[in-house]
Amino acid sequence: FLLQPESTMRTSAWCLLLFGALLCGLVAVLLPTGGLGSAGLTRRLLPAYLRVHRLVAEFSRQLFGRSNKEGFAEKNAQNSCLYFLFDDTQLQRNRHLSILGTVFDVSESAFYKPGGEYEQFTGRDASRNFATSDTGAESGSFSDNLDGLSGAQLADLFEWQRFYFSKYKCVGYSRGRFYHPSLLETDYLRGMKAAADAHLARKSQLAENFPPCDATTIDGKTVVYCNGALNLDPNNVMPNTRYPRIFYNKFDATSGCACVLRDMRSDGRVAVYEACSPDALQCTVLRPPPPLQVGQCGNQIGSRFWDLALREHASVSRRGDFDDSLGTFFRQQPGEGQALKARAVLVDMEEGVVGELLKGRLRGVFDHSALITDVSGSGNNWAVGHCEYGLRHREALSESIRRCAEQCDCLQCFFLLHSMGGGTGSGLGTAILQLLRDQYPEVYRFVTAVYPSEDDDVITSPYNSVLAMRCLTDYADCVMPIDNACLAGIAQRVQDSGRTAAGSSAAAAGAAAVKGRQAIRRDEQHSGQPAAEPHGFRPLSPAR
Predict the structure, then answer these.
(1) Where is this region: Disordered (predicted)?
(2) Are strands 254-261 and 282-284 parallel, antiparallel or unpaired?
(3) Strands 221-225 and 282-284, how do they pair?
């Protein structure tokens, strides 16, 4: 059914209703009397009658049931929205998710949110109002503006749309921003597709100019190399010989190892590995584990941790050089003016703490592709964090962790920071721990867990701690417990001493403890000798 905007939409809808009424009346007359002389014909008419009845009910509800109260048709015309109604023959029920003005039948759909991994699919209440609308809500409306999206986001959007077009059957149209009444693509849609195709072409060209390095493990350290072989003579090179470099891909906002030709070694998008000669054909570089900050507690301590790391570096390096010490916690982006990015993944099922980080002075330090948030929170419930959010965000978590791990030249362990009393920290934190065990079984998993105090105001914290302990026992190689009461005591003593410097809080005390343990780990890596074991540093599973 082709629906026109404004007044013609109502005309077409009235025609549809009239046709439906006539068909319903005809079937109602013929079925009881056995009319048309054929039971087979009756059986063929009945599905058509039910199908038209459903379409009439759906379109009439949308065009007339809400237009008198909210001007639905006028809003639809103003937004110039393409409207597809899709029918899922397997589910036999209508649930709608609008993508690029396209409405699909989906099961228990949820809106994407701005700032997340899939912000190009955000709904009408998000910062880019084009993708989704709730056709069943009283306040539902359509919008479909793609302006401001990057080429990568447009490519993702069209890929997602192709997936749904291959799975669902289109049964209705309306004219809009993307298609003419004849269903031909508009210049606007062709322009957006051209931008997506241009991005894919540039990405393909980059993959050709900067192919990924090969990698192997020697004596527990990762060695990256090019040209398909190790231990090549650097004095016997050919014009097509390639050299390993850190490459920043601005299209995907990621960095990794790439092999570059000799005349491309000065390209601004590449950088030499630390402690590696510019003419080396293979490099071995040690990197610390990427911290995974989970929940409100983990991110509050983490925010002070990164602030403390930058302050300490500034106190000893007045020129702000990027040295080995700073490289322990940060990485450089060669394509972005040598900007610093923290080696971290930030996870929280509420946006409060992470949102404050993105608004504060450290907002440029965090990679937005490594931020995973939700809006409703875990309600201080271990099961919600572990079972519900652990499954819902498993793919996004896996992808963010993979990107962070690829930035480590020698991935030896993961470092988790979370609380044991909250729902997200205890539940989702242990779900991430299990994910790491499944996907990186040979990489050690270190956990800094903040345990609740006896007078904790969260009544479910003891239960959350008990449930999380089983997962720590099964999946963690080493747990470094922190007592929340001790952190509060340290913060109180600092406050009583009259110090007003940044860090006079429990979060700052926790950050100092975490940074001390990171320093111990770093010294151990550089010296090759085990450091003194700190108080509370206890392995929970047998050493491998």
Answers:
(1) 513-544
(2) unpaired
(3) antiparallel
| Homologous superfamily (CATH) for 291-527 | Tubulin/FtsZ, GTPase domain (3.40.50.1440)
Work out the number of other CB atoms within 10 angstroms of the CB of residue 405: 19
Q: How far is CA 331 from the centre of its chain?
A: 20
User: For 367, how many CA atoms within 13 A lie in the half-sphere containing its CB?
Assistant: 27
Interatomic CA distance for residues 142 and 308, integer angstroms: 46
Can you give the residue ranges of every domain in the chain?
A: 2-194, 210-283, 291-527
Query: Does residue 417 contact residue 283 with C-beta atoms inside 8 Å?
Result: no
Band the pLDDT of 181: cuts 50, 70, 90: low
Query: Percent of the chain at pLDDT above 70?
Result: 53
* Nearest-angstrom CA–CA distance, 345 and 88: 38
Provide DSSP, 294-309: EHHHHHHHHHHHHHHH
- Per the DSSP assignment, residues forming a β-bridge with 444 are 413
Contact (CB, 8 A) for 212 and 246? no
DSSP 35: G
What does the alpha-carbon distance between residue 225 and residue 254 come to, in Å, rounded to a whole number? 19
Name the token pair of 343: 């080696």
Specify the higher pLDDT residue, 468 or 151: 468
In angstroms, the Cα distances linking 327 to 274, 281, 288 are 9, 22, 9
Going 473 to 476 to 480 to 481, the CA torsion angle's sign is negative
Arithmetic mean of pLDDT, 253-277: 80
Any residues with CB less than 8 A from the CB of 181 and at least 6 apart, and which?
Answer: 2, 4, 175
Two structure tokens written together for 485: 């009461």
Q: What is the pLDDT of residue 305?
A: 85
Contact predicate 94/134, CB 8 Å = no
Instruction: Tell me phi and psi for residue 143, to 5 degrees.
Output: -155, 155
Is 269 exposed, middle or buried, given 0-12, 13-18 or 19+ CB atoms closer than 10 A?
buried
Instruction: Please list, in sequence order, all residues whose beta carbon lies within 8 angstroms of the beta carbon of residue 351, skipping any fewer than 6 positions away.
Output: 115, 373, 374, 375
Q: pTM for the complete prediction?
A: 0.46
| pLDDT tens readout for residues 84-106 | 444 444 434 433 444 444 443 34
